[in-house]
Amino acid sequence: MALQNSTSRPIKTVSFHQTWSAYAFLAPALVILFLSLLLPAVATLLMSFTDVSFLKPTNFIGFDNYIKLFNDTRFQQAVGNTIHYTVGVTFPTMVLGLLAAVALNQNVPGRIAFRTIFYLPVLTSLIAAAVVWAYVYEPYAGPLNGVLTRVGLPPQPWLQNPSLAMNSLIIMAIWRDFGTAMIIYLAGLQDIPNDLYEAARLDGAKGKDIFLRITVPMLSSVTFYLLIILIVQTFQVFGAIYVMTQGGPLGSTETVVYQMYQTAFGYTEFGYSAAMSTILFLTILVFSIIGTRIMRRKDA
Amino acid sequence: MARLELSNVSKSYGAFDAITDVSLAIEDGEFAVFVGPSGCGKSTLLRLIAGLDPISDGAIRIGPDDVTRRPAGTRSVAMVFQSYALYPHMSVYDNIAFPLQMERRSKGDIRQQVEKAAGTVQLSTRLKDKPSKLSGGQRQRVAIARAIVRKPKIFLMDEPLSNLDAALRIEMRTELTQLHKELGATMVYVTHDQLEAMTMADRIVVLNGGRVEQVGKPMDLYHKPVNRFVAGFIGSPPMNMLRSKVKAIESEYYSFEAAGIGTIVIDGLAKRLKVGEEVVLGIRPEFLAPHPAGSEPLVKIGVVPRSVERLGAQTIIHSAIEGQNFTCVFAGDQAVEPGRDLNVYCDAANIHVFDAAGTTVGRN
Amino acid sequence: MKNDVMHAMRPTRRAFLSGAAAGLAGLPILMSASGRALAADQQLVFWSQLAGSKKAAGEALEAAFKTARPEVALQSSLYAEPSQLNEKMLTAINGNTGPDLIVQHWDYNLTYASGKKLVELGKALPNVKTADLDQSLLAYGRADGGQYSMPLYGTSRGLGINRKLISEAGLNPDKGPQNWAELREWAKAVTKRPGGGMLQVSGIQLYQNDLEAFELFTLLLQGAGGSLLTADLSAPGFAGPEGVKALTFLQDLVVTDKITDAGFGVGPGGMANPFNQQRAAMLVAGNYSTNNALKAGVEFDVVPFPKESGGFTSLVDPFCFAVRAGAPNQEAALKLVEFAMSPEQQVAFAVASKNVPALKSAQQNKDVQADPYLSKFIKTASYAPPTAPATPVFSRMMSLVARGVQEVIFQKNTPDKALKTAADEVQTLLKKS
Questions:
Q1: Residue A201 and residue B71: Cβ atoms within 8 Å?
Q2: Is residue C271 predicted with pLDDT exceeding 90?
Q3: Which residues contact C311 (CB under 8 A, 6 or more apart)?
Q4: How many angstroms separate the CA atoms of B83 and B105, rounded?
Q5: Which residues of C make CB contacts under 8 Å with A?
Q6: pLDDT for residue C379
Q7: pLDDT at A299
Q8: In sequence order, what are the beta bridge partners of B359?
């Protein structure tokens, strides 16, 4: 007790100095974060309770935007489309990324070249990729239909048919994203001790057993991480849709973020758009929390 | 249980020869220990037996079967890894059950076997836990149980105790020896620690530079090392080595001129040394005594103790002769003062003589 | 010892921190220093959308203005797309840092006008006589009885044809279809579907985006005698029998006659669109269609778009000047508008950009008429009604109608139901505004 008393004083002085200077050093970063992240987020939340258009006087309208949102069939379609896109992109991306990573983690010739090739789409600009894919999907001169007709299958209007357009965008997104999944999985694979594989081999496990019982579960935290970032990322898809389909045909590729953009800048209903944005934010937040909870439980 | 036989086994990685022409047989039920300094190839040899790496040349037989080309997992060997290599995402139960699940055994059978194996290593109450919840010793037991449950013909253990603290290591040493007796299994155990080798082994295989230096019972290696390497490796503190020259040979008696000591006379040596030949004389520290005792001819050596460790049961004196460490271990507590001249005595019969090539010069 | 070190360091740390604090204090100043704030007050800030085929014409206009009015310092920024300019405008209006003058697609201007963010130009431009201007184009700049935006030029719609494909089908490209029945016959005649299977040449490339789907419907609606909105712009007029007739006609073309596939031609357009690839014989063409078609080697021609039972119709689509309310250089802005509306500049701009000038006299100028395609678009412009769907909810109405049209083409809905749904929503929007 006496000892504690005698030491507590200088410690307090030091820690005051330290916190004070720590905050001072943090201040520039905190101010920028506040201005660029927190302020817009709070502003968006506040805007969602108004009818702000930046053109006419703004009124506080309580939960009207949210009530309207829950009865808006167009928004419901956008939510459905977004879920379709998210599920359609996330799972195949992870499966393909995992398979590519496992294949290229072996000592096969040309693996560096393949890794590079698979990762290249991630590095291309989205707009350039979208232009190329728009050409690939071109119904009459595009190479995809060219291949189909050559093997005797009917050509498809990939981006022009409401029931195909979203899947076509999904395929492009998988092509773009699975390189990321592969790189992350490769890093995860390198973290699995070789001993485990050797132990499993000695325990009589064959390739399939090793993959399903050792590799996949050992990558589960990587998988959860990927799952969360892919969900969060695909929820916010915008660029490819803006370039390739503008939400059409028949709104079949209109996602929440595209509709947000359209509502804000096309229809100058910023308040309504802010309500959509808030809903999207809350959804993503829920997924992030679930994700971190699961990760934490696994680590424990 | 089975006999393990290696015939002219070699392994090279590119231009590097990790194992060169190793032939040895480990008998059914024997506890064999591969020992040697790091990089000597002992773990590589174990991996070759397990089938984790293919051999470059030679053959491996387990029991009547030539397993040289068989993949790991079909050789009926189990291995305990230095890191334990437990599956961290599986419970203790599943870790132990894994090899049986791979054999597609029935659930009931698996349960019975796992519980039995867990009982053997005293882990019956921890079956539901993940390995991360266990202590180092408990993880070690899980690894052993996972090996036991397969009922392998050969157990392979790659430095299984090196990640444990000293006290636990001694405890596990006893347990492993006990387990070996209970199971009556053929075990091959790799360690760099000669103490572990000495205490546990039925037979020790000393490896150096990818070659077998000597195979034998612990006390044979201790008393009759075939060369300077084995003599220096086995025993702690290590054998004192003194550079010397053959000065004269008179019938049975060989006189050696040892630098910094003077003349040492030894009798009963195989007659193959010539006058003027360079040799190394080896004296184990524990065979040195502060007073003349034992049979003639006695050798007297004058040392200046640099430091003295009085441990009660023994007293260890560190000194140097001609720049070479020279250690004495005396029984009981001896009041030796550092810095003061001291004569120590040794029975000439206990001096090992190595020729210039390092090979032991035998006795008649 | 440790304390000594701390003392020795303190001044340095304090100096560093005060430096950091000064930097932070400076941050807001830096951030507020937008382009507008830095611009000299006497500059006329002009944000234009005169890009692409209008770029040269726009530059020539600005250069001529600088020569004619050296006292005005013109600072102009170019935006590639109307939507880009709109995003910039909305944020600028919000921050009260907008430009003095813009040239923008008419419907955005009506949105700004609905928030009283624009200057009423009818009285502000005494030297521009509205009677001398094309009434159809002018109608698109009217809001609440005032002229809030002033058309610089417009495009008009006609039936673009590929003369080669038309002739090959045994039709006379010099005399376009005179009514819907003939239009239908033409479309069927030029469609190529070998073996009834894959479409090789579409009779009409119907639309490549929502706006074109909307415009096609508008032309047919007008052809059937209807209009998008009632005369007072307070209610939708497109869901009546004329609208249903128009959409049924379209449905018949696609579903019964199979003159094209649903969704055919939808995409980014430009050189890649099927008409320019010679894979469609006709399309609804505007002035902007000419360059790409000719570049693609299409034997391009324009004929007026027929009404149901004879006669022609069209629509115009102007780009208009607007002056921001509260802008510091309104006077200079008005000078530029006045200058651009002068006969010489109207002619020069029309010739350089191949667009229909707003000034009627310029439309008939011999230099303008000398351009074979421009003269045809001027002719088709004359078939446009003198009214316009000039409502701030236009973009919403456009996408709702386009959605209805496409639902019918994809056979997801019937014409009357699709139009009724769209009309109900448009009615709600109109009431609110």
A1: yes
A2: no
A3: C383
A4: 27
A5: 13, 17, 20-21, 23-24, 27, 31, 83, 86-87, 90-91, 93-94, 111-112, 114-115, 117, 198, 209-210, 261-268, 272, 274, 277, 279, 395-396, 399, 403, 406-407, 410, 412
A6: 93
A7: 60
A8: B227
User: Going by DSSP bridges, is the β-strand pair C146-147/C202-205 parallel, antiparallel, or unpaired?
Assistant: unpaired
- Which chain A residues are within 8 Å of C112, Cβ to Cβ? 55
How close, in Å, is residue A283 to chain B by CA atoms?
A: 30
Instruction: Mark whether A and B touch (3+ CB pairs within 8 Å).
Output: yes
Provide the residue ranges of all domains of chain C, joining segments of one domain with +.
39-155+317-381, 158-313+393-432
pLDDT at C302: 94
How many angstroms separate the CA atoms of A241 and A249, rounded?
11
Specify which residues A296 forms β-bridges with: none
Residue C7 clears pLDDT 60, i.e. is over it: no
The reply to whether B174 touches chain A by the CB within 8 Å rule is no
DSSP states along A211-224: IIIIIHHHTHHHHH
pLDDT in tens, C112-154: 998 888 899 888 888 888 889 999 999 999 988 889 999 999 9
| B159-212: pLDDT as tens digits | 988 888 888 888 888 888 998 998 888 999 999 988 889 999 999 999 999 999
On chain C, the residues whose CB falls within 8 A of the CB of A154 are: 198
Q: Do A196 and B87 touch (CB under 8 A)?
A: yes
Fold assignment, C158-313+393-432: D-Maltodextrin-Binding Protein; domain 2 (3.40.190)
Between CA A91 and CA B53 the distance in angstroms is 36
CA B199 to chain centre: 9
What one-character-per-residue DSSP string does C309-358 give?
A: TSSEE--EEEEEEEEBTT-TTHHHHHHHHHHHTSHHHHHHHHHHHT-EES
Q: What is the mean pLDDT of residues C98-109?
A: 91
| Residue C102 CB coordination number (10 Å) | 31
User: Are there at least 3 beta-carbon pairs closer than 8 Å between C and B?
Assistant: no
Search chain A and give the residue with CA nearest B75. A202
Residue B253 pLDDT:
85
Q: Which residue of C has its CA nearest to A139?
A: C264
Q: Which amino acid is at A214?
A: I
Contact A246 C209 (CB under 8 A): yes
Q: Where are the domains of chain A?
A: 1-47, 68-299
Domains, chain B, ordered by start:
4-233 (3.40.50.300), 240-354 (2.40.50.140)
Side chain identity at residue A28, one-letter code: P
Average pLDDT over residues B204-225: 93
Q: Tell me the CATH number for domain C39-155+317-381.
A: 3.40.190.10
CB–CB of B153/B1 below 8 Å? yes
Q: How near does any CA of chain B get to the CA of A193, in Å?
A: 8
**Residue B297 to residue B269: CA distance in whole angstroms:** 13
Can you tell me the mean pLDDT for B279-301? Answer: 85
Contacts of A251 in chain C (CB under 8 A): 403
pLDDT of C185 reads: 93
DSSP per-residue string spanning C29-58:
HHHH--HHHHS-TTEEEEEE---GGGHHHH
* Chosen CATH of A68-299 out of 1.10.357.10, 3.40.50.720, 1.10.3720.10, 1.20.1250.20: 1.10.3720.10
Count the Cβ atoms, other than its own, within 10 Å of residue B334.
17
pLDDT bin (cut points 50, 70, 90) of residue A224 is confident
- ipTM score above 0.85: no
Q: Which of C31, C87, C264 sits opposite A160 (nearest CB)?
A: C264
pLDDT band at A16, cuts 50/70/90?
Answer: low
Q: Work out the minimum CA distance from A102 to partner chain B, whole angstroms.
A: 19
pLDDT digit string (tens) for A36-62? 888 888 989 998 998 888 887 888 888
